[in-house]
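Justification of computing resources. Each target in the renewal requires a structure prediction run like the one illustrated here; the chain below, 128 residues long, is used simply to show the kind of job we budget for.
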Amino acid sequence: MVERTASRTGAVWSYLGAALVGFTFVGIFVIWLVPLVIRARTRNPWTRAHATHAANFGFTVLIALFGGGLVSAVFGLSASYPETQPLPILLWSCYTLVGLVALLVGALRTGLGQDFRFVETISLRLLG
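Resulting structure tokens:
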């Protein structure tokens, strides 16, 4: 438990940094940056694990952003079903809101010294 207590700050900032930087208009493209920097600079395995989780979520958001944009473009070009045009944007907005809440819960739990992992359906495990 000493290892977790000493490294709470880095673990909390992995999630908070992603939330603060990522959920701005331009920052959504670099949501993975803050956790990746913390992951690269820390030697503590507990902080590194949480920074990896936050970076994985950031990369997943980036993939969802481009995938949602592609789906929106495809549905946007299809004039035969105009009622489906806002669907990809609505889905991505819900994903973003759930992700923001998950990042804040992650920061809170790591601040208390507890473990936190994203649900596998909202975060791909891209980094090991």
